[in-house]
thioredoxin-disulfide reductase (NADPH)
Amino acid sequence: MLRGKNRPERHPGTESLRPSAAPGSAAPGEHSPATRTQSNTEHRQVSSSFRDAAIAPTTGGQDPPSPRCPKPLSLHVRVRVCPLVCGLFCSASPLRLLRTEARGADAVRLPGRRSSCSCVRVVPGSGCRRPHAQPSTRRSEEASTHSFWMLARDTARLLRVCVWSVREENAGAFPLQVKELFSSLGVDCNILELDQVDEGASVQEVLSEMTNQRTVPSIFVNRVHVGGCDHTFQAHQSGLLQQLLQQDLAYDYDLIVIGGGSGGLSCAQEAAVLGRKVMVLDFVVPSPRGTAWGLGGTCVNVGCIPKKLMHQAALLGQALTDSRKFGWEYSQQVRHSWATMMEAIQSHVGSLSWGRRLALRENAVTYVNSYGEFVEHHKVKATNEKGQEALYTAANFVIATGQRPRYLGIPGDREYCITSDDLFSLPYCPGTTLVVGASYVALECAGFLAGLGLEVTVMVRSVLLRGFDQEMAEKVGASMQQLGVRFLRKFVPVEVQQLEKGLPGRLKVVAKSTEGTETMEGVYNTVLLAIGRDSCTKKLGLEKIGVNISEKTGKIPVNGEEQTSVPYVYAVGDVLEGKPQLTPVAVQAGKLLARRLFGGRSEKCDYVNVPTVVFTPLEYGCCGYSEEKAGEVCQAENLGVYHTLFWPLEWTVACRDNNTCYAKIICNKLDNDRVIGFHVLGPNAGEITQGFAAAMKCGLTKQLLDATIGIHPTCGEVFTTLEITKASGLDITQKGC
């Protein structure tokens, strides 16, 4: 510790830290900087923000908080910084970590001097020169915050046992207790004293926001945040502490995620925030038409994001038509430019993909654009586009490779047809289009293509939207027919021939009836296949390490914690057997998985009552059971199905059909009329469904809906006035607003 003239001047309004003698001021063995005494010239000073930040002691009954780094962090944390020594950290006052009495093969030796105390003390150093003062800007503040976060995270990575605390005489009996505990286990205890440095306040603020723990000490073991003193002793009693200390550090990484989609990236970044060394392997195999994309997976590049934007483009076309009824006059012919739309959408998609790469870099996640394949236990081979190979090992793996569109396996399908992998970056207008399939992808694509003014035909093998409520599915189809979409029911293609080359060219499709020997032919500019998706699990080498894969679906069965048949291999996202194939589900599952693996948390992903929306021209939103599934689970006689048609106010002046939009809820009579199914077909169905999904998580009942006052005039208010049941047979058609 610096003394005499080298000691920094006292900052106005700061005081020394001492634990309060009052009982109950902090949990046993933990020191809250909110309790303080008068200034003491023998102690270094810390800012009031440090004292104010650590006021709530943790209790033994709580789960240890997991490290986090919310962005943006609190403004008062953000201060100017400069590079630190050791090439690791940054601070306005250069810091260095003094490592003393390092023992053991895995001990980290840092520059410094020995002392009789086994600790790492954060003290002022002279290894860096102060930069000239710079004007305070938002960018420099954010960089400073990130630098302090890097300090906390990287220190936890370097040291096997890392304890952020205050000077021993301020911390009471804690140092002796913890040091004796780890000494009994033959492990060094590295204590970093925050009150011995000017910037300790800022580091403490970042630690608080990373870990959700606002007290010191804050203890990390092998990069896992254990919690405070009480949590550490509880972990020792339960055996968790010994498990953490015995973790094999010989692997290259703590976690390797195979797949750079939403679920994989969520898991990787959360694990990195929790102090783990993480790698992401991601390689997009080009489609048969040669389409490939960057980091971010299906949702960002060829799924949710570009789909919703093209859906919006189509809605704007309908809005132009409606606008004349609202008094807008325009004499020019309105035309849509596919090239302009595609350029704008791809520009946005590219920015999102780049943002994912930047986020990995900021979280110190290693990203390798290579195809990952297991070669043996705990080891994968990564092959890049040039065929160059590299081997990596990890203690844990997460499979998040997602799915890719399925092909028909008929002559001409791979040569001449496109899929959603190609459509969202197609450089030319597809022209007259045949959409093969009746999935939500098929209907969404058909819907926005028709909305852009193209002639669209949908070829359906059996039913629309298999797995969804079939009454709602048929209403979706009927609404699309009103917009000019043609449906060919009970036919499947058997051959695709090229009649004329070009962009888009001309194709002949030969189709056969599923109910007889009838055949038919049609000529189209583009054939879009949307008949389902196959899981990307067959070429990962999973069989070499014993991971079970469903022979029928190619998906990976997992337990309630996303763990496969091999204990150190996990899976999230669309590769899971029997789980919703939705981006938010994958994101949530990936984040919670990382917290369970590395943060000492226990929360699991809830796959029940997951809301979703089909972005057809008239959107269909749902949450919970379909009417068919509810009948299977609860028996039809135990259900109360309330429904109505409704007429959005915006449609009245535009003279659009007054009996197209539809609302339905399914209630379980045996469970206090709890709402177990929610369905809405109408404008902005996604926005409506999201709110009611939260209510269903809270146990929404029909009585609660009836007691809710609606917002008038909105589409959502219809659910607060539902009175007619299907069983009553009463008329639900609308005559006015």
Summary: The longest strand covers residues 389-399. The CA atoms of residues 182 and 188 lie 7 Å apart. The two ends are 77 Å apart (CA to CA).
